[in-house]
User: Which sequence fits this backbone?
DNA sequence: TCGACTGCGGTCAGCTCCTGACCGCATGGG
DNA sequence: CCCATGCGGTCAGGAGCTGACCGCAGTCGA
């Protein structure tokens, strides 16, 4: 389990790390037990515990026959020592979190994922990939996105690395872009890459779902300042002024109190407001981004009386699904 | 960002940890840069890098003016040094992974979550909680489960701690159980706790979704051997012989090739097989656990011609949803 | 109540190791 | 070509670590 037994080379540092690892694996350890494991005297263990405490890790200790050491929750998170399976679980969890099934932490998840993927041994990366593949069918909403791609982009931003990738513009034309990535931004239902386009010599925002194939890294990026300083604001501006079609939100009226409905609708995807006329037992649900078929289905799952207010396409979609299900019996 | 500057107390160990942290934060660092950050001479940095290499961390270095150090992927995962936001993202990701939206790694996720939650500073735990709450509405399938509760149970198993909790049996009677938890098992769509029941003096399996309130920890558990050794097998036996109602799987016929459908249905939730009569352009999808309303909805989302084969309740459900959507227009 | 086991911390001698300083070398980019 | 970088050797002083011993104070079980 990654214990190495390198105690030969850097005795005390290696031992401190090993000690931390042991303390994370099990909650309670007695001094002699630890001394035995680490092949040092009990006195040294006591001193090591003191050192870890000095480093900020809160190690509690209890005297008595049932006593021992335990690592508690402190002011800072200690270095996490994960075994293989746990690391895979973390990576997979971050991928789903990044794909937006959570709301509010997508960008952080991508950052953490980028960090993790860089350190992940190959054998584990393959396992993550395999699990991710069987899972991708779960992507329920919004454009399908690729967590690996996001992690790659985020790494490039963090490490100031140039990227070259194929990009399909909205009119369908493919082009190859040489860029210096600066930020990955999540708009609530779409991912964007803010980068300096070396050929066009200007800032551009790229829709991540339109990037084709694997980006190729190449060379260092120069330090540049995004106009306005805030990547998110930059994306906002460029898609507002831009040629982006603003997605049409879907609106559905539900016969139930707003609070009851809000509790069952993910806040990141839709907002719930009491119906003006009949606020006590009806409310209106509006999607955050554009409407989508899955949104409709979520609403149907509520098992409450619905009324599609718009747009007409949403109503048409409702009819289609209703017909499908009706015909299935 | 958790830098501490405790370089006073345990110089080299603290510095090694800090160095590892820096190398995880950014991909590329030059020697003088690191020396400056850690307030030591460049020579010491070189030596520290060597030490880390000796500990098994693959640090690559490039000479030349564009050179520097970078931490690569090695045989083992180095201790992960996460900042606050990243730690929260990891915790949230693990919670969703544990709630079964992934398939195949639920139990590992719970283990990792237990480890993480024990180390998580309070302020971060609160943030995780908050995010988890707004998210819980997303639980789409199976009984609603509480990731916190699972983590608590997993901790107790790992640490051999007794737990007392309220339990609602299937006939509705509430009782208080004093247990020594031994394993948390995921059956594919339900969670079970395998524990020694101190009052009944025998092994029991508890359905986690029937545990009421927060379990209370109390005292050490004695080491005991689960009959048969394998907790999963034990759960299998006890729910098979047991009074558990085996859930009725749902079966739906889809007019499309099996491979095409399989790619869009999470393997952990349902199996896809070619239709005997008409294998080339029809297949039958069978749920792993019992059928559920969300399962039906997944199928409707495929936008393919469906036929509900059974059970009758599933057909009735389809009719209900179809009616709801039909009436919504 | 007692004893056994635990953790705590002080002290000491010996020895490991760590550090900063200096050196020359190899490498890669501008 | 020149520069900045990483590499590794050596040296001397000093800091740090280790194991051994001691007595103390909690806590649990008998």
Assistant:
């Amino acid at each position: 389990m990654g214990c190495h037994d390198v105690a030969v080379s850097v005795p005390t540092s290696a031992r401190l790390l090993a000690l931390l690892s042991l303390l994370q694996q099990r909650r309670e350890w007695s001094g002699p037990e630890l001394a035995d494991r680490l092949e040092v005297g009990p006195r040294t263990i006591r001193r090591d515990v003191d050192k870890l405490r000095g480093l900020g890790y809160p190690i509690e200790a209890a005297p008595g026959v049932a006593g021992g050491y335990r690592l508690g929750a402190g002011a800072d998170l200690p270095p996490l020592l994960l075994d293989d399976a746990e690391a895979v679980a973390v990576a997979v969890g971050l991928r789903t979190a990044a794909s937006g099934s959570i709301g509010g932490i997508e960008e952080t998840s991508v950052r953490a994922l980028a960090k993790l993927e860089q350190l992940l041994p190959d054998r584990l990366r393959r396992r993550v990939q395999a699990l991710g593949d069987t899972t991708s069918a779960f992507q329920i909403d919004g454009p399908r996105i690729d967590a690996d791609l996001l992690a790659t982009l985020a790494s490039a931003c963090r490490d100031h690395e140039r990227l070259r990738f194929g990009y399909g513009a909205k009119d369908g034309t493919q082009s190859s872009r040489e860029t210096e990535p600066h930020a990955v931004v999540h708009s609530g239902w779409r991912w964007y890459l803010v980068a300096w386009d070396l050929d066009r010599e200007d800032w551009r925002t790229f829709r991540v779902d339109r990037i084709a194939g694997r980006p190729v890294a190449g060379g260092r990026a120069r330090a540049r300042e995004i106009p306005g300083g805030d990547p998110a604001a930059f994306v906002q501006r460029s898609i507002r002024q831009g040629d982006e079609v603003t997605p049409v939100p879907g609106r559905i009226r539900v016969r139930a109190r707003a609070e009851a409905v809000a509790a069952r609708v993910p806040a990141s995807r839709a907002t719930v407001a009491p119906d003006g006329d009949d606020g006590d037992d009806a409310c209106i649900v509006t999607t955050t981004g554009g409407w989508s078929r899955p949104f409709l289905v979520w609403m149907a799952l509520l098992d409450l009386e619905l009324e599609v207010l718009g747009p007409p396409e949403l109503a048409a979609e409702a009819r289609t699904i209703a017909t499908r299900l009706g015909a299935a019996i």
Remarks:
- Confidence is low (pLDDT under 50) at residues 1-8, 136-142 of chain A.
